[in-house]
Design brief:
The chain is globular, with a radius of gyration of 22 Å. The two termini are about 40 Å apart. Helix 3 packs antiparallel against helix 4 and helix 4 (about 120-140) runs parallel beside helix 8. About 45% of the residues are buried. The model is unreliable at about 165-175, about 175-185 and about 190-205 (pLDDT under 50). Strands 1-15-16-17-14-13-10-11-12 form a nine-stranded mixed sheet, with helices on both faces. Helix content is about 30%, strand content about 20%. The chain is α/β, with parallel strands linked by helices and about 500 residues long.
């Protein structure tokens, strides 16, 4: 048993390095500053007329400087000011909006659907159709870089499921989601916790407006961003105005095909490929589950795949791939990866949210041999009930690593952050459990990479995520894909799922 502290991973930006995304973009600009990038982001906007006007006014406000959060206990590095989204500062990019790119929906259309539809499922589909018609128009006639779908607060409760009591795990997941942008109150599905009408018909299938709209909009080939119209007037339970702007524009820059930051490559000539594999239930919550793979390199470039249905065995309720399924999934992923990036990796790291069995290990290794990948690490990343405690007032530091043996480790990805000079959370943080089922690199390097991968979520500029983007992405993708039929188009880029 060994206890150590891993240094905070640096990120690479346009002209320098920083451990913090906000400071990195402010001081060194986006990673792709010297390459082809989105300097002028053409933005489509869809929503009720008054909601659209609120968001347009907020976008204009964000052109300029937004002061830092005012607090009795300030943490300037955690809540810095926003320099403005313009061609001179930070991102060195600007938003382009035109009347012809703005599609205004009639208030009466929403009212007719809400008043005339008791079924939540039909209501979601019909309101989503209002947006999808306009997304289709913009894609056919204007082709913006991204589309904002603006939701009025008045109609939020009409498209959400009844409130349910949160489990302990869900409370912890919500805590991990802290720091996301105001738009991500919808983007991250937190809107599901709104209270619904008592007489609402409850469907046996999962109903989620955000997931449904994201899935159905994929056929039009333009990433969408779902925002609430209150984004310009943060309330007490929301983030401060500067943090909202940081998160919103970082996500938007990425959705417009920009690269805000990148991981630092271990070797200049070697390409490491990271894959995340998870499982998700169908909308009817049956036991049939499907695997998902997301595979990308240090720059965040990569592809999304949907795997095959898997069988759940009576003696093992944890879903597993057969050897053939494991081979086909990874083989297809690497083929698509090569078509997109024109290169095969020299090293492959597979993150999975459940334990590996012998068939999965064998199938994955066969693919590695096929493509002459010399180094393969198969890692399980899970929650754990184990905790560590410090003698000081604060929780364990982020980066604390307890190695129980060579294959089993506890890693604090959330905790006291030296850079922020505080613990940026409300609840006692817990580590993740890292199990190495098959590995070629050192356990310490593998865990340090996991720490770095928690910083690769471009939907959030607060870098202390609990899980690496490999696991987060695979889960998020699964939640969207369950709303797509096998015959419907799915996108390969993660920007369509975030």
């Amino acid at each position: 048993m060994e206890l150590k502290h891993l240094t905070e991973p640096l990120l690479q930006f346009g002209t320098g390095f920083s451990e913090d995304p906000k400071m990195g973009i402010r001081s060194f600009y986006p990673f792709d500053i010297a390459n082809i990038r989105p300097e002028k982001i053409k933005l489509g906007i869809i929503g009720k007329s008054d909601s659209v006007d609120k968001v347009l006014q907020w976008l204009k406000y964000c052109n300029g400087y937004i002061p830092a959060k005012v607090s009795k206990n300030p943490h300037p590095k955690l809540f810095p000011s926003f320099p403005g989204f313009n061609s001179h500062e930070a991102f060195k990019a600007e938003i382009v909006t035109e009347d012809s790119y703005t599609r205004r929906l009639n208030n009466s259309e929403f009212e007719d659907i809400i008043n005339g539809t008791n079924s939540l499922e039909l209501r979601i589909e019909r309101i989503a159709k209002l947006y999808l018609n306009e997304i289709k128009f913009l894609s056919k006639n204007k082709n913006p870089d991204a589309i904002l779908c603006v939701l009025s607060e008045k109609f939020i409760t009409s498209i959400t499921e009844p409130e349910t009591e949160l489990s302990e795990d869900e409370v912890e997941e919500n805590e991990d989601a802290e720091g996301e942008s105001e738009n991500s109150e919808v983007e991250s599905d937190d809107v599901e916790n709104e209270t619904e009408e008592d007489d609402e018909e409850v469907s046996e299938r999962e109903q989620n407006f955000r997931r449904y709209l994201k899935a159905k909009a994929m056929e039009y080939n333009i990433p969408i961003q779902i925002v609430r119209d209150r984004i310009g007037r943060p309330t007490a339970e929301m983030q401060d105005a500067a943090s909202i702007a940081w998160n919103f524009f970082t996500a938007l820059y990425y959705k417009a095909s920009g690269t805000p930051w990148a991981m630092i490559k271990k070797e200049a000539t070697a390409v490491t490929c990271y894959a995340g594999i998870s499982f998700f239930k169908s909308r009817d919550r049956s036991t049939t589950q499907t695997s998902v793979a997301q595979i990308f390199n240090e720059l965040g470039n990569g592809i999304i795949l949907r795997g095959e249905p898997v069988d759940i065995k009576k003696d093992d309720r944890v879903p597993h791939l057969t050897e053939d399924q494991a081979f086909r999934l990874l083989d297809k992923a690497l083929t698509e990866y090569h078509e997109a990036l024109k290169i095969f990796p020299k090293r492959l790291v597979i993150h999975k949210s459940s334990n590996y069995n012998e068939q999965e290990i064998s199938g994955f290794k066969k693919v590695a041999r096929k493509y002459q990948i010399s180094s393969v690490d198969m890692v399980t990343i899970q929650k754990t009930n184990l905790r560590l405690y410090r003698e000081e007032q604060y929780p364990p530091r982020r980066g604390t690593l307890l190695s129980l043996d060579e294959k089993n480790h506890l890693l604090y990805t959330r905790g006291s952050v030296e850079y922020y000079e505080t613990y940026p959370g409300k609840y006692v943080p817990s580590p993740i459990e890292v199990r190495l089922f098959s590995y070629d690199e050192s356990p310490e390097l593998i865990c340090h990479e996991i720490l770095a991968l928690t910083k690769m979520n471009w939907n959030n500029t607060q870098f202390d995520r609990k899980f690496p983007i490999t696991i987060e992405c695979a889960r998020n993708v699964g939640e969207i894909l369950k709303y797509l039929d096998e015959t419907e188009k799915m996108q390969l880029k993660y920007s369509f799922y975030m």
